[in-house]
Write a structure and sequence with these properties.
Chain lengths: 160, 1092
């Protein structure tokens, strides 16, 4: 098993190199990720047809778009490949929220990132804004996959 | 909301009428769905007002609205049960005789439900006063009932009387009694008293009532009113025989009868259909067995059978159904009712019944044909049930003999042909509407199981005679044929019913083990049959390769493998199964191993699984991995559970090929994760077959070492953080973690060393992975489960220094996990993604709690050579520290998951019970968490959780009490209370819980089961905080405004602490006294405290 992994390491694949990877459908599990209809989804349900039996099994996936929360499903023969999105998450410190709905973030290595919009959903928006307004020291986790980016989690690391 | 006036004096007519109108209005408006909340409140206020009896009686007698009468009866019940403590005994008797008189007077009323309600109110009140009423008072009621039941007041009154007895019996039976806010002991005593003094009498009344109308029923050609009374009487008899008799052991239980007394219903025998044994004891012999009662019943039913063509009678008419039920129950009659020195009596009894019902099921082909062409199947099913009952109470040989005196064949042959017919029906039309054949199959299968299940694990079952064996063999062949046919037919079926299949897998498993019992009964024939069928299919597979579609054959093979597996081995959930006795003893005459039929069958299966390892064969025949996974791995998994098989397995070349493939071949990484784990477990477990411990460890190292090294290398790469997120890397990391988990869970003393090294070598990588994958919950969960399994397998063997290492590792793991997750909020638009995130968290936390419990077990089971204290490790401190880290992560929302809640509280209560002294050393923050948790748990809905909290409180309080009496600090400031930084005095733990426990006991709803453990917690709490208790008691008394109730309360409080020589020690005896006192106290005061 080691040969090909070594090979991957030497290729120095960086995060942007490939948006998706092929993987056999039979090995995709619940809580993993999958691309359905061109969208990066989290797998919330996998069922294999013909459970407990022999036959040409097919996998039925139900996925939820990790960015917009829409539900998709797909059926793939278990021996075929399907696309798995490369989902990256990075933690940043939240420095500022600007009037025009952008946030400015500070990364671990000291760079700033100012091109990310606040979420449009009111609920999420207030969760972030309120925490920030209370003067809490907030770390946000930014999730990126297939060219899209979004804040996916928020963590309070104590008062400023 | 409208209230009703409490009864001051006698209410005048106008008042009564206005109450009646209000209730009638409320009842009608509920029916019309107009403002139901207000209407319900009106009705509720009637039952909650003081002494509403006058008004209720008025409504019952005068109202034209049936619902209002129903509600009035129900109000009588509620109010009387609540106020029972201070009703005068005249009041009580009046209420009961009013209800009884009411039902008798209105016996012909068309509103059956009002009658039933009033009747059940009378029964409940009679039970409530059962232990207080004198015998004469009870006799007065029963005389009235007896007259009614005997029929001298007409059929309607007779029916009403029988119905009253029915509700009385069901009220006195523990499983059907209604709650009265009284302890279990009360219900138990009532039950005993009724069984001793009245039950048999009631039975005789019912029998006489039925007898008195029998002639009229058999002589008339159409349905007559007597049928209704007779049906009720039969139903009452069925109900009385259903009673859970306890006084049956009074006979000579010392001599062993040839009939098993209840022994057949071993708790682990797989039972689907219910078959309750009826064991009333020798006192019932005269009425049930020797009086010709059964002959009458059988005659009655055969008379009914003649009438099924008449108007008003049919196969499923109530009287026929009740009669058949009673007959089935008579078949389950067993125990000391039959004298142990007279086996003929039981045999005769069964024979009489069997000859009575034989025409229901014999000849089987005609019966099944009649049902197929539209006859109701209920009689046939009841026939099957009688066979099941007889099979349950008789040994196989007696069972078989019974029929021989009236037929040329034995009962086993009948059973076999009958089931054969059912299987044929199932085979021909395997659609879901054919519910009757499913049901019949299940009942008959249970009968076989009852006959064939081995009575004890070492002594075998008695062997069947050749005829019985033949019957079993024929049936088994038919069953296998049917299963194979079903399997072949399902090969091309669509996946529509896959959900259904999964749900029925466990049912199928159960069915297969019953089939296996039948197969084992005729093992001479079945093993060769299975071998033959298997090799036929196998040859077909080899010949047809690449030429024809083999899906059907594969499907058949799969099904055949399942059946074979069940025949040759017991399933061993969690335990190591032995070779079944039938298999073990039967072929002892075969000396050469190669000719042993079981070995022939076995080796052909192993050859078959070897084929699946052959890549070419796999390509052409075994399409997806499912086949391998389901047959091979499941099979292998069971194989390694037996040590002597392991010995052979590890010597096989193919086993080494498999191990090699597992360690080095990439294709196996494509297996489903659960199979990865089970394969690793299987392979590691087989090491127990290697005789030499050193080579066993080496084998594990060779098998797993490669993977551990790979993880170490991977995690130390400088760019690991970047590549780690790639799906292919995530996949292989997950696979490796699954395998490590599987290997860890196969830990055995012999391989413990190698598995410890394995885990030790990946400790650092595990922490690195935990950091890198902190957002990848699926990986984190696998990782935690691996650590849990590893610690579980290792902890009790570790030496002090190793324990310290493992404990430190676990603590870093906990801290790291906590630092990633505490205060973290997931943001997502999708509610299902949010709830997924919550579920993931829940699973993680459960794993962490399991980890702590596993660490905890070091103090209980420890095989190491020196005490762990030498390294300064104190397990209790470690676990409390762990809890301190984990607790903040557990939110109230997460505690809604019952399993997590249960795990958390069982760990917490274990810690508090076993190590109360460590609690004293907790800092105030950790201590506050403990207190808050207990407080939460005490108000939980789940009785078990409350019980655990009560036990913790008892442990803490009794520890503190003992320590302070010995002049030590006990829990110190935690007990006395502290002033927090803002200057408020925090109440001490014991005074706080004394208060809330009293509040709970007196004013809130809880299960009566909790009273004992609450008493055990309350006593030490009261002793710790005597001053607080006095204050609370005084407050309670002050709040009571009615003088009579006030003095009752004062007396009750006094006797709570002052009677039965309650002392201030905490020994067993004193706890018992206090439990008794508290029970009595609650019965005395809870009723009025809660409602006033």
């Amino acid at each position: 098993m080691s040969d090909s992994e070594e090979h991957h390491f030497e290729s120095k694949a960086d995060a942007g190199a490939s948006k998706t990877y092929p993987q056999q459908a039979g090995t995709v599990r619940k809580n993993g990720y999958i691309v359905i209809k061109g969208r990066a989804c989290k797998v919330v349900e996998v069922s294999t047809s013909k459970t407990g039996k022999h036959g040409h099994a097919k996998c039925h996936f139900v996925g939820i778009d990790i960015f917009n929360g829409k539900k998709y499903d797909d059926i793939v023969p278990s021996s075929h490949n399907c696309d798995i999105p490369h989902v990256n998450r990075t933690d940043y410190q939240l420095i500022d929220i600007s009037e025009d709905g952008f946030v400015s973030l500070l990364s671990e290595n000291g760079n700033t990132k100012d091109d990310l919009r606040l979420p449009t959903d009111d609920n999420l928006l207030t969760q972030i804004k309120d925490g920030f307004a209370e003067g809490k020291d907030l770390v946000v986790t930014v999730m990126s996959a297939m060219g899209e980016e979004q804040i996916c989690a928020l963590k309070d690391i104590g008062p400023k | 909301m409208q209230g009703f006036p409490d009864r001051g004096g006698t209410p005048d007519l106008a008042q009564l009428q206005s109450t009646m109108h209000a209730i009638e209005l409320a009842c009608t408006s509920i029916q019309m769905h107009m403002n139901p909340a207000a209407a319900e409140a009106t009705i509720l206020s009637l039952s909650q007002s003081r002494q509403p009896y006058q008004a209720c009686k008025f409504i019952l007698e005068n109202s034209q609205v049936a619902n209002a009468r129903f509600q009035a009866a129900s109000a009588i019940r509620d109010a009387a049960i609540r106020e029972w403590g201070y009703l005068t005994s005249d009041d009580k008797i009046n209420l009961i005789s009013f209800c009884l008189g009411f039902v008798m007077q209105h016996a012909n009323s068309p509103e059956g439900y009002v009658q039933a309600k009033v009747s059940s109110v009378a029964a409940q009140l009679l039970k409530r006063g059962w232990l207080d009423f004198t015998t004469a008072e009870k006799e007065a009621f029963f005389n009235q009932v007896n007259q009614a039941v005997s029929g001298i007041h007409g059929v309607d009154v007779q029916y009403t009387g029988i119905n009253f007895l029915e509700s009385l019996v069901s009220e006195f039976s523990l499983s059907t009694s209604s709650a009265m806010g009284l302890p279990r002991e009360f219900h138990e005593e009532c039950r005993k008293s009724l069984e001793m003094n009245y039950l048999k009498t009631f039975y005789c009344w019912a029998r006489d009532a039925a007898l008195s109308v029998t002639n009229r029923i058999t002589e008339s050609d159409s349905a007559i009113p007597e049928v209704k009374a007779c049906t009720a009487a039969l139903r009452l008899m069925v109900q009385i025989l259903n009673w859970d008799f306890v006084c049956n052991s009074s006979g000579g239980a010392t001599s062993t009868s040839i009939f098993q007394v209840g022994g057949r219903q071993a708790s682990d025998s797989p039972k689907r259909s219910e078959c309750n044994l009826v064991q009333p004891g020798p006192a019932w012999r005269d009425i049930l067995v020797t009086s010709g009662h059964i002959g009458w019943l059988l005659n009655l039913y055969s008379a009914l059978r003649q009438k099924f063509s008449c108007e008003g009678y049919w196969l499923d008419c109530p009287i026929a159904v009740s009669a058949r039920k009673l007959i089935v129950q008579f078949c389950s009659l067993t125990g000391t009712i039959f004298p142990s020195d007279n086996a003929q009596m039981h045999e005769h009894h069964l024979l009489q019944l069997l000859s009575g019902i034989i025409q229901w099921i014999d000849p089987p082909d005609a019966v099944s044909k009649a049902i197929e062409s539209g006859k109701s199947e209920s009689e046939m099913l009841d026939g099957c049930r009688t066979l099941l009952s007889i099979a349950t109470v008789a040994t196989p040989s007696i069972f078989d003999q019974l029929l021989k005196s009236i037929r040329p064949f034995g009962t086993l042959t009948l059973l076999s042909t009958l089931m054969g017919e059912v299987v044929k029906i199932l085979m021909t039309n395997n659609s879901e509407e054919e519910a009757w054949s499913w049901e019949a199959r299940d009942i008959l299968l249970d009968a076989w199981t009852a006959l064939l299940v081995p009575l004890d694990r070492n002594g075998g079952n008695e062997l069947l005679l050749p005829e019985g064996k033949n019957a079993a063999a024929n049936l088994f062949a038919l069953i296998v044929e049917a299963e194979l046919k079903a399997a072949a037919a399902s090969a091309f079926k669509d996946d529509a019913d896959s959900d259904y299949l999964q749900a029925s897998i466990s049912a199928m498993d159960e069915r297969l083990s019953s089939y296996a019992l039948i197969g084992r009964a005729a093992i001479d024939a079945t093993i060769p049959l299975l071998s033959r069928l298997f090799s036929e299919r196998f040859t077909r597979l080899n010949q047809g390769r690449g030429i024809v579609d083999l899906t059907e054959t594969l499907e058949e093979l799969y099904s055949l493998l399942l059946i074979t597996g069940h025949v040759i081995a017991d399933e061993g959930e969690g335990e190591t199964p032995l070779v079944p006795n039938a298999v073990q003893t039967h072929f002892s005459y075969v000396v050469e191993a190669d000719k042993h039929p079981v070995i022939i069958l076995f080796s052909s299966i192993i050859r078959f699984s070897e084929q699946s390892l052959d890549p070419e064969m796999r390509q052409s025949v075994f399409s997806p991995r499912l086949m391998e996974a389901l047959t091979c791995f499941q099979l292998l998994h069971t194989l390694v559970r037996q040590k002597h098989i392991c010995l052979h397995i590890v010597a096989l070349d193919s086993w080494h090929d498999l191990a090699n493939a597992f360690a080095n071949e990439k294709s196996l990484l494509l297996l489903n994760t659960a199979h990865q784990r089970s394969l690793a477990q299987t392979l590691v477990r087989s090491a127990s077959g290697i005789r030499n411990s050193e080579s066993a460890n080496q084998y594990v190292r060779d098998l797993m070492g490669h993977m551990a090294r790979y993880l170490v290398e991977l995690s130390s790469k400088s760019d690991f953080k970047v590549v780690a997120q790639r799906p292919d890397i995530i996949l292989s990391v997950s696979c490796l973690l699954e395998r490590l988990r599987g290997a860890s869970s196969a830990s055995e003393p012999r391989t413990q060393k190698a598995i410890y090294e394995l885990g030790f070598s990946v400790m650092n990588p595990v922490l690195v992975l935990l950091e890198v994958y902190k957002h990848e919950s699926a990986v984190i969960y696998l990782l935690l489960k691996f650590v849990v399994a590893w610690v579980d397998g290792q902890i009790s063997y570790l030496e002090a220094q190793e324990t310290a290492v493992v404990v430190n590792f676990c603590m870093s793991l906990l801290q790291l996990y906590s630092s990633h997750n505490i205060g973290k909020i997931s943001l997502s638009l999708s509610s299902s993604l949010l709830s997924e995130a919550k579920t993931e968290k829940y699973k993680d936390l459960r794993a962490l709690l399991q980890l702590l419990s596993n660490l905890c077990s070091k103090d209980l089971v420890d095989f190491s050579s020196e005490s762990i204290d030498t390294q300064g490790t104190n397990i209790s401190q470690v676990v409390y520290f762990g809890l301190h880290i984990v607790t903040p992560l557990i939110s109230l929302d997460l505690l809604k998951y019952p399993k997590l809640c249960y795990d958390y509280f069982s760990l917490l209560s274990h810690m508090l019970e076993v190590y109360p002294e460590t609690v004293a050393q907790l800092d105030s923050e950790s201590f506050c968490r403990v207190v808050a948790s207990l407080d939460f748990g005490l108000h939980h809905q789940d009785t078990e959780i409350i019980d655990m909290c009560l036990r913790s409180l008892r442990a803490l309080a009794s520890y503190h009490y003992g320590e302070t009496r010995a002049g030590k600090a006990g829990l110190g400031s935690h007990a006395t209370g502290v002033t927090d930084p803002s200057g408020n005095l925090q109440e001490g733990i014991f005074s706080r819980f004394l208060h809330s426990l009293l509040q709970l006991l007196l004013f809130e709803d809880y299960s009566p089961d909790l009273v004992s453990s609450a008493a055990d917690a309350l006593l030490p709490l009261m002793l710790c905080e005597q001053g607080v208790y006095q204050r609370l008691a005084n407050e309670l008394i002050e709040r009571q405004s009615i003088p009579a109730l006030k003095s009752r309360l004062v007396n009750a409080l006094q006797s709570l602490t002052g009677t039965n020589q309650l002392s201030t020690t905490l020994d067993r005896k004193n706890y018992q006294i206090f439990r008794k006192n508290l029970n009595k106290f609650l019965i005395d005061v809870r009723g009025f405290l809660r409602t006033m």
